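Z., the sequence and structure:
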Amino acid sequence: MPAASGQPRMPAQGNNSPERRTYCNPLNLDYGYTPNPDLTALGRHRTTADPVITRFKDDYYLFSTNQQGYWWSHDMAKWTFVARSFLKPESKKLDDLYAPTTFALGDTLFVFGSTEEKNFPIWMSTNPKAGTWKEKVSAFEVEAWAPAFFVDEDSKLYLYGSSSDKKAIYGQQIDPRTFKPLGRRKKLIALDGEQFGWQRLEEYFDPKSQPPALEGAWMTKHAGKYYLQYSTPGTELSGPADGVQVGNGPLGPFRPQAQNPFSYKPGGFARGAGNGSTFQDPWGSWWHTASMAVGVKNSAERRLGLWPTSFDPDGVLYTNTSFGDYPHYLPSSLSDYGQSMFTGWMLLNYNKPVQASSTLGSYTPNNVVDENIKTYWSAASGRPGEWLQTDLGRLSTVHAVQINYADQDAILMGKPKGMYHQYRLYHTVDGKSWQLLVDKSQNTSDLPHDYLELRAPVKTRYLKLENRHVPTGKFAISGFRVFGRGGGSAPEKVKSLLVLRPKNDKRNAWLKWPPVDGAYAYNIYTSSKFDKLYSCIMVYGATDYYFKGMDKNQTYYFTIEAVNENGVSPRTIVQEAR
C-alpha cells in the first residue's frame, strides 16, 4: 500500500546483499547505431526506442527499434543479444524492425514490426534464444504502425495500433490460427491536447510547429479490466509519457484514467518514460519499460529504461519513476513494486570538481556531473590513457558507479560485431595514493551505460576513470555518476511550496519554493487525487518549475521534498491547485 501521502515508501537503506542485485537507468544494453544516413547530420550515434518485453519459457525477451536482433535475459540483470534480421532478402528498407510487438501463444513466440502497408510478415519461433525464426504469415493483411498484440484469457487475439496526428488508435480481433482479421477495426482513443496538457507537443513554453502523433499502443488486463496504454508525442523532449484508458472489454469503450499519465519522468539525468510496454515478472509483480530521450545527434536519439509498476487498491495503474535513474533493486520475490525499490544510494558527485587528461573544444569535464545526458565531456582522442577524475568533496561510502559513454566522432552505423569498451576505475581517499577499484581492461563486451554495483561498499573521496579502449570515436562521457551515502545529514524540509495555476490555461502551473541549504535537487510529486501522488518530477539546481502536464478540468495536488548526497527530507504539506 502507498504511504500516507499516496507515494511509495523508501525501503531500508544500503541493502547490498548478493541476492538483492540492482540496476540503473538507462539500461546498459549494446545499443546499435542508427542505420539511416539521413539521421546523421550532427554525427553518427547509438539509438533505439519503443521497447517491448515479453516473458516466454521463464525468460524475458526484449525487442526494440532497429537493432537487427533482440535481447533475452533470465533475471533482467544480464541481457544477451541475439543477432537476427527480420527483413526479407529482397527488402530495401533501412528500418529492420521498427516499433515491434511480441506475444506468446502456447510454446511459440511471435514478433511483428510496424508497417504502413499490408505486407510485413509475422515471425514465429519456439527457440528464440537460438535465433531460429520462420514466417507464420508472409504478408499480414492489416496495417498497423507501432502495433500491439494482446492475447486474452479466453485465447482470443486482438491487435491495436496506429501512429498519426490524424488517426486514432484502433483495435481489431484477429484469428489466432490464420491471423486473418475478424470484423472491422474499431476506433478506440485519440489525443486531446486541448484538455490534457501532457498530450501537447511542447517543451516548456516552446510550442512545436508540427502536430502531435498518437502511437505506442499496449494492452494489459488486470482484475477483469482492460488497460489500453498509449504514448504521447515528443520523443526528443523532456516529457514523453504513457497514458492509459480503461474499459470493460478488449475493444472498449474506454475512458481515461483520472491519474494520467501513468508513466512520466520529465526530470533527472535521462528524461522520458513513454512509448513502452507493461509486463509481469515470475512473481506476478508489474514492470514498465519505455524510451528515454537523448536527442543530441538527432531528435530520435534514445535509450531504454525500466521502472516498477503497480495497480493500487482502486485499480489505478501507475509507474514509480521516483529516483527513476538511480540504482534500484531487481525483482527477487513477490512484492508490490509499485512501492519503491530504490536502494537509497544517493548521487555523490553532482556538480563536484572534475579533472580530465584533455578536452575537445567546448565538451568540458563539468558536463559529466551536471546530471544531463544531453551534455558530455570529450577527450581530445580515444587513445588509451585518457582519463577523467571526480571529487566527492568528502569521504563517502560508494556502493555503485554508472559510466555513460557519449558518441563523439563515431564512424559506425547499424549493428557492427565486435564492439567493446575497456577501462580501469581507481579510487583514493587523499588524491595521491590510487588503488584499483574495477579492472575492465580485458573486457570484450559493449558497455555504453556500464553500471557497476560494488561487491562491497568502499569509503573514499576521489574516483578516476582511465580509458583503455572505446569502440569508435573519442573517449567521451555524458555521466560519470557515483552512488552511495555521504557523510552528513539529509536536507531540511522545504519551508513552503507556491503553486500558481493561471485561469486562462489551467493545463499549466508555475511552482516555486525557497532553497534548502545543502540540497542539490528536489522531487515534486503531483496528481489529480490527494492520496495518489504518483507522478514524480526531479529538478536539479533550481527552485522553480513550469509544469504543463495537467488536465484542465481537474483539481491538482502537489508536494515536494529536498534531496542531497545524504538522503531525502520530509515532504511538505500537500498543496491544492484548482
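The longest strand covers residues 449-469. Residues 50 and 99 are 5 Å apart (CA to CA).

Let me know what you think.
H.
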